[in-house]
Amino acid sequence: MEYFLTDQQKTIKSLARRLAEEKILPVRAELDEKEEFPRAIIKELAAADMFRVFIPTQYEGLGGGCFELALVVEELSRVCSGVAVSYAASALGSFTLTMFGSDALKQKYLPSIASGSRLCAFALTESTAGSDAANIKTTAEKVEGGYLLNGTKQFITNGGEAEIYTVIALTDKSKGPRGASALLVEKGTPGFSFGKKEKKMGIRASATTELVFRNCLVPAENMIGKEGRGFIMIMKLLDISRPGVGAQAVGVAQGALEAAVAYTEQRIQFGHPLAAIPVVQDMLAEMAIQVEAARALVYAAARTVDSGAYDITETSAMAKAFASDVAMKVTTDAVQVCGGAGYMKDYPMEKMMRDAKITQIYEGSNQVLRSAIASHVRKRKAKTP
Amino acid sequence: MNIVVCLKQVPGTADVKIDPNTNNLIRQGIKNVINPFDTYALEEGVRLKERHGGKVTVFSMGPPQAEEMLREAISLGADEAILLSDRAFAGADTWATAYTLAAAVKKLGQYDMVICGRQTLDGDTGQVGPEMAEMLGIPLVAYVSQIEEIAGGQIRVRRMIDEGHEVIQSPLPAVITVTKEINVPRLPSLRGIARSKSAAIPVWNAQELGADLSKVGLNGSFTRVVKIFFPERSHKAEVFEGELADKVDRLIDRLKAGGLV
Q: Rounded to whole angstroms, how far apart are CA atoms A205 and A86?
């Protein structure tokens, strides 16, 4: 399929693929097995300017958008979703700042995020607030010299590894969601520590921890955007970031499809390669159709986001929900067509199947997204422009 | 530190065919790459620049299409790349190549170190670096596997020898040739690729180098490739087929007949 990439987009994609194949492929099984954060690979990605892709040019980035980021995430995820999400989480953590932060705050933080010398993270989820994000309990009380943070964030990607955290907290408890704000908190700030490190089913190379805030004083100038605008910013942020999760899903599905084709070509049963058997061909063809359809939808959504379109909620949710369902289906079928071998850790298919699952869950579970899509469909009476 | 790195473009495959009529390598349809040993030289030059400041200038003597490789060198961190290209350079052996590269280094003037790969993948002689040192009248350390220290106009390196390694100190400027143990070359960066696309790659010909035409190319070469050929296979394999016991008997007979047992 021709996606009409610009020269720069082609360069980004091919360099990301080279990095994935030369630097990640040799160690992905070990990273998965040991649940080890890929620090050396993050350094390689930084040296290749991959963290510059999603940062505006005036802050030492390359000025790419959602689409360029998606290209990198897809290529990394094709080889290892655990590494891909560690990279993508830095983008997610930086977007609120990029979109809503003051110039001074951007000058202070974005260049080091662009160089990859400091990783970023985004912290919204709490034990009482998953899909029901409005139910957060972490507070940021206005005091002399800034805000006093108190509360615990949960399931935070890049927790402990990132240096810069975008934390959503209530600056006015009485207003509920309208009292939420976004604050930048640096690792090492007194009162900020890391709690439990989660053990996960998939994306095991990535770090997922609790963030614990106990009377953590954050300078007032670290407020991103206006106080009390936190939830509006988050909704906007997630609309923009969801095609990235879609790209992660497309990548893992693509990786599984390639692994399945390679295995079924060389595995001889009944005197033929498995790939020559009609029932297997049917599965491979279906997988290929699904992957390409998901890619086309994710690319279209990412380009819609980059066009500056006003209402992107539905498009972006569709791309994420569809691509992640495809990832689960295709990776499961990749294990299936490879039979016993597919189930074993000697092959990458089982890891991809475990890695795929999270894409249906995070950054809006597919159920929450479908309910949002349904309300848009009803509002527009299912009509197209 | 101003560092000169010398690169050669070579066929990116081990499966090189020879034209039986001209005795030349058949280069059509083969992707050219930076001589693998030279990639370590370039990486070491870029690392020294990152540590000590200065710049990395890359030279390559070759046909116009070597420009593509020089652009790649810029994407990998070289500051400038200059192609030494002239019909008069054609057919150069190692001596004439070293003469041409040394002339370019002299023209550049300011330099603290020249870094070459230990040998090329195609010619395999390992002579150009040492010959350049001779022509430039500066010290040479070959087979360097580690640069230990650069201070006070001196360099201290480890060089690989058959029995282990030697630690050698030398005044600068000097020529070093490096082995693959010295580093792991980086991949290009996106900004490097962007820079490489717009970079100017100057071409210096024999006249601009002020080179003596009797010393470049075929004219300046003491050696000449008379013939390149694949050695004929003189070994034959016999395959015994049939029952195992029968095959063993035949093998023993064969070994006895050959006077081997």
A: 8
Query: Is the Cβ pair A47, B186 closer than 8 Å?
Result: yes
Q: Looking at chain B, which residue has its C-alpha nearest residue A21?
A: B187
Of A8, A80, A16, A7, nearest in space to A48 by CA: A16
pLDDT of residue B91: 87
- What is the model's pLDDT at position B73? 96
pLDDT of residue A4: 97
- pLDDT band for position B241 (cuts 50, 70, 90): confident
AA identity, residue B123: G
For the stretch B155-199, pLDDT in tens is 999 999 999 999 999 999 999 999 999 999 999 999 999 999 999
Token pair of B154 as six digits: 């001196």
Q: Which residues of chain A have pLDDT under 50?
A: none
Task: Specify the DSSP class assigned to residue A203.
Answer: -
Pairing of strands B154-161, B140-151: antiparallel
State chain B's mean pLDDT as an integer: 91
Expressed in percent and rounded to 5, the helix, strand and coil fractions of chain B are 35, 25, 40
Query: From the CA of A23, how many Å to the nearest CA of chain B?
Result: 10
| Residue of chain A with shortest Cα separation from B75 | A48
Max CA-CA distance within chain A? 78
| Phi, psi (degrees; rounded to nearest 5) at A154 | -130, 150
| Closest CA–CA distance from residue B42 to any residue of chain A (Å) | 16
Amino acid code (one letter) for B187: L
Rounded CA separation B138/B132 (Å) = 9
CB contact (8 A) between residue B191 and residue A44: no
Residues of A marked active site are found at 363
Question: Distances from the Cα of B30 to the Cαs of A294, B13, B68, B69, in angstroms?
Answer: 36, 7, 14, 14
Q: Which of A97, A43, A44, A51 is CA-nearest to residue A73?
A: A51
A60 touches chain B (CB under 8 A): no
